[in-house]
Design a protein that fits this description.
Blueprint: H1 9-38, H2 43-50, H3 54-61, H4 69-79
Helix pairs in contact: 2-4
Length: 94
């Protein structure tokens, strides 16, 4: 017998996933902004030092776009941090 999903089940799951991603994105942006502030940089300076376009960085920081992994690496390198630090990863062990 084939199971039938409840109407709207996929929509609910997608919404939950979207909410979790929004939370991660907000935390990521908060950490990036804090690191920029600590360096006494502007967002434009971060864009220039990282090689990320100013418009694209602005869209990331305003929550309009999500950064690619490559962009996160560029941002982390400009900020002189490990990419994991952008996500608030705890102490790393080797």
């Amino acid at each position: 017998m084939e199971s039938v999903a409840e109407p709207g089940a996929n929509t609910v799951e997608a919404a939950r996933s979207g909410l979790a991603m929004d939370s991660v994105h907000r935390e990521l942006v908060t950490r990036i902004r804090e690191m920029v502030r600590r360096k006494h940089w502007s967002a434009n300076q971060l864009a220039d030092f990282s090689g990320v376009g100013r418009g694209y960085l602005s869209d990331i920081l305003s929550g309009k776009k999500s950064p690619t992994v490559r962009t996160l690496v560029k941002i982390a390198e400009a900020l002189e941090v490990d990419v994991r630090d952008l996500f608030g990863a705890g102490p790393r062990t080797r």
